[in-house]
Structure formats: structure tokens, C-alpha cells
Design brief:
- It is built from eight helices and seven strands.
- With 248 residues, it is of the alpha/beta class.
- α1 packs across α8 and α4 packs parallel to α5.
- The protein is globular, with a radius of gyration of 18 Å.
- GO terms for molecular function: glucose 1-dehydrogenase [NAD(P)+] activity.
- Belongs to the short-chain dehydrogenases/reductases (SDR) family.
- This is Glucose 1-dehydrogenase.
């Protein structure tokens, strides 16, 4: 029987992050739910049981990220990092978007992802045995533009680039780095805005060859696969989980 791993999931208090945590717990692993909202992370961890714990963490604070990994190292270390934290709150056309708003999404989605990736890599190397796995959450928007969403989508294109960059440099340490790139995902928030049978839901679904938006579990299972032994010879990949939308 494989020993349980410790999985650090940023943005783990809800939505896709919490779904990923559930999948790892079901696989027999331990999870650390890192989230800027420490109270929400505590509640989510309590709901998952004794194999989950919470960590209040702002991924844009490099000092806090380094301190968190120091504490985790003292408690046995982290085997898998899931860079899930990100924001989708900045919208606007090229001619309208304020540069400061664009900078705010890059700070979280790009620089934050980089900061945690760097800290995890240093953590694994310092443990002396290398290894470990990173799975980043990207988006098919990094490859398929949508008017008004360019700030978010270009940040996710950068996440794909960070994935490849880290994969080629960290391979010598046995650290694999991949990404999962979802299309639209039926998180509780999106389900509320796109109820089944609504015109908006039908319009989105019509763009997807497999006929509907992804469930959170579809994304979670892809993350667990890329973090597992079955993907031992896969690195530098951004796996689209989009029902075929990139084909259209």
C-alpha cells in the first residue's frame, strides 16, 4: 500500500480547489488547504475530516509563502503542490482596461503562481531527496481568446509558460511540473449563474463538442492523475479538460 502523501492546494477553501482536495482525500492522501481566507479554509478542512488542515496564506506575499514552507518542512514536508489560487475578476477590452487592473490579476495569477512554485522547488531540494510534483491550474483561455477576458486569459497563458519553464529546469531534481487547463467548469458559483436549461447554459454548451460544461470532479480527477505514479513520465504538459472546445 502506498504511503499517504501531503498535498498543498492553494485556493483550497472552495470551488475547484475544494473539489481537488476531496479527490486527493478519497485517494488516501493528506491535504493542506491554503487560502487567503483562513476562516473559509478552516471550515473546508473541518468538512473533509482528520486528513485535512487549513493554512491562511496570501500567495502574493513571498515572505509568508517562504515561512509557510518552513513550517511545513518541520511537519514532514509537502509532496505535491497544486497551484489553484487565482482570480477572474478583471474584465475589459484592450482599449478600455486600466493597466492597474491588469497588473492586479497578473500579481495573483502569474507572480503568485511563480512564488509558490519557487518555494516548493526550494523546499523539495532542501529536503535532500528531490522529487515531488506540481500541478498548475491554467485555462483553455490561454489558447482560445474571448473578447473582454484577455487579462485573465493572458495570465493563464503565462501559467502555461511557467509550467514549461519549471518543468525543464526542475527535471534534474526529479520534480515534475504539469498543468490542467479547464474550459468552463460548473462550480457552485457558475451553476447559480448558468442554471441547467437556461439560454446562457445552452449557448455555452453548444460550443463544446461533448455537449456540456465540465463538472468540478472532471478537473479534480485530471489533477490527481498528473500528480500520481501513472503520470511518472509526463512533465511540461498543459492538459486541456474542455470537452473538445479547443477543437472548434
Amino acid at each position: 500500500m502506498t504511503a499517504p502523501r501531503t498535498i498543498l492546494i492553494t485556493g483550497g477553501a472552495g470551488g475547484i480547489g475544494l473539489g481537488i482536495a476531496r479527490a486527493f482525500v478519497a485517494a488516501g492522501d493528506r491535504v493542506v488547504l491554503a487560502d487567503r481566507d483562513g476562516t473559509a479554509a478552516q471550515a473546508a478542512a473541518a468538512g473533509l475530516g482528520s486528513t485535512a488542515r487549513a493554512l491562511a496564506l496570501d500567495i502574493t506575499d513571498e515572505t509568508a509563502v517562504a515561512t509557510a514552507f518552513d513550517a511545513l518542512a518541520a511537519d514532514g514536508g509537502v509532496d505535491v503542490l497544486v497551484n489553484n489560487a487565482g482570480i477572474l475578476s478583471v474584465h475589459g477590452a484592450v482599449v478600455d482596461l486600466d493597466a492597474s487592473a491588469y497588473r492586479s490579476i497578473l500579481d495573483v495569477n502569474v507572480v503568485g503562481t511563480f512564488a509558490v512554485t519557487q518555494a516548493f522547488a526550494r523546499h523539495r531540494i532542501a529536503l535532500g531527496n528531490g522529487g515531488g510534483t506540481i500541478v498548475n491550474l491554467s485555462s483553455i483561455g490561454g489558447r482560445q481568446p474571448t473578447p473582454g477576458m484577455g487579462a485573465y486569459e493572458s495570465s493563464k497563458a503565462a501559467v502555461d509558460s511557467i509550467t514549461r519553464w519549471a518543468a525543464i529546469e526542475l527535471a534534474q531534481h526529479g520534480i515534475r511540473v504539469n498543468a490542467v487547463a479547464p474550459g468552463p467548469v460548473l462550480t457552485p458559483m457558475l451553476q447559480a449563474g448558468l442554471p441547467e436549461g437556461s439560454d446562457a447554459r445552452t449557448a455555452w454548451s453548444s460550443r463544446i463538442p461533448l455537449g456540456d460544461l465540465a463538472e468540478v470532479d472532471d478537473i479534480a480527477h485530471a489533477v490527481v492523475f498528473l500528480a500520481g505514479a501513472g503520470a511518472r513520465h509526463i512533465t511540461g504538459v498543459s492538459l486541456a479538460v474542455d470537452g473538445g472546445q479547443l477543437l472548434t
